[in-house]
Design a protein that fits this description.
Elements (H helix, E strand, L loop, with lengths): L1 H4 L3 E8 L4 E7 L3 E4 L4 E4 L4 E3 L12 E3 H19 L26 E4 L2 E4 L4 H19 L14 H4 L10 H7 L6
Antiparallel strand pairs: 1-2, 3-4, 3-6, 4-5, 7-8
Length: 183
């Protein structure tokens, strides 16, 4: 996962659930330039690494963040299907990404009125990402899988709480936003 996500941004939170997953990614680049040698450059010229192989060829000179997510999901699906001697889709067709700083179509912490959807938080720019950060980590509790979020080993909550020292999340970026975990 790191090689597909990290050229574009920093992972701030993640949670794997039995039937879905959540990622909170701070996007630094939406498109990177990819060469056949596996070296990529962001649109601002910063050199990044990104795996390119004969089984994962580059069809164009640029790859978007969404393209990399699609490749990641397809690769994971192929691996699981091979392991389970299955075929077919693992993910819903409507797998989606939502921009936390774009206020159109936001779902949690909102209410609908006759005048439209109102986000029910005082400082939308700072408050909504914090709500999502907590939502991601509390999702296993909400689903009844554990009593405490830090008991779910398949999320970044243990890393945030200092129980585990996982390498996937970007602590500096989390601190920059002032995110703290709360129930």
């Amino acid at each position: 996962m790191k090689e597909y996500i990290l050229p574009y941004g920093d992972i701030m939170a993640w949670c794997l659930m039995p039937n879905h997953f959540h990622w909170m990614v701070y996007i630094k680049e939406t498109t990177i330039i990819v060469s056949n040698e596996g070296v990529t450059k962001s649109t601002d010229g910063v050199t990044l690494s990104h795996p390119v192989s004969k089984t994962n060829p580059v069809s164009s000179k640029t790859r978007s963040f969404n393209d990399s997510i699609a490749i990641l999901l397809r690769s994971y699906t192929r691996a699981v299907n091979k392991q389970e001697t299955n075929s077919g889709a693992l993910f819903r067709e409507a797998t989606k990404a939502e921009c936390l700083t774009a206020y159109n179509g936001i779902t949690p912490s909102f209410y609908n009125t006759e005048y439209g959807t109102i986000i029910d938080i005082p400082d939308q720019e700072k408050g909504y990402p914090q709500i999502c950060f907590n939502y991601i980590h509390n999702n296993p509790v909400k689903a009844g899988l554990v009593k405490n979020a830090e008991d779910w080993e398949f999320s970044s909550c243990q890393d945030i709480c200092g129980i585990r020292n996982g390498k996937l999340i970007k602590r500096d970026r989390i601190n920059e936003f002032g995110f703290t975990f709360s129930i």
